[in-house]
Amino acid sequence: MADGRGAPLAALSTAANVNEGTVLERLVDAIPPLKHPRGHPGRPRQRPDKLHADLGYASRRNRAALRRRHIAPRIARKGIESRERLGRYRWVVERDFAWLHANRRLLVRYERDVTLHDAFLHLGCALICWQLLHPNP
Fold it and tell me: To which H or E segment does residue 81 belong?
């Protein structure tokens, strides 16, 4: 899961045979709370206002879960919402996948230990954040 600029907010690794739509709730709950500057009133916001997703996440259960968390679901619907309209937002996440797959250890999983693979996944996400903060001229 990434924000509008492409900075990874949360990442989960699952088995290859797990449908991505079944882990949406775990992924949304894995987003850490935002830290407000000192003196900023109110509770820190823990979740995004809206979530853009492709057809892999299109189910009534996912839409209801997002609404319970006060997140507006912007999930493509078969035959109703075109993929072109959603593509304006999805390219940011696809770019993140391309950046993650530039690391060979994440493209092909060599590790048997899940914790080691997750460590490389989080390191890759940290490198993406570094690229966003310090763009190459």
Answer: none
96 burial type by CB count under 10 A (0-12 exposed, 13-18 middle, 19+ buried): buried
Residues 93 and 87: their CA atoms lie apart, in Å, by 10
Query: What gap in Å lies between CA 7 and CA 18, rounded to an integer?
Result: 24
Burial class (CB in 10 A: 0-12, 13-18, 19+), 93: middle
51 in helix, strand or coil? Answer: strand
Instruction: Output the CA torsion sign for 16, 24, 49, 37.
Output: negative
Going by the DSSP 8-state scheme, the letter that residue 26 receives in this structure is H
* Residue 30 CB partners (closer than 8 Å, separation 6+): 1, 10, 11, 12
List 51's β-bridge partners, or say none: 73
- pLDDT tens column, 99-122: 888 888 888 888 888 899 899 999
Q: How far apart are CA 47 and CA 131, in angstroms?
A: 24
Tens digits of residue pLDDT in 48-97: 788 888 888 888 999 999 999 888 988 877 766 555 666 677 788 888 88
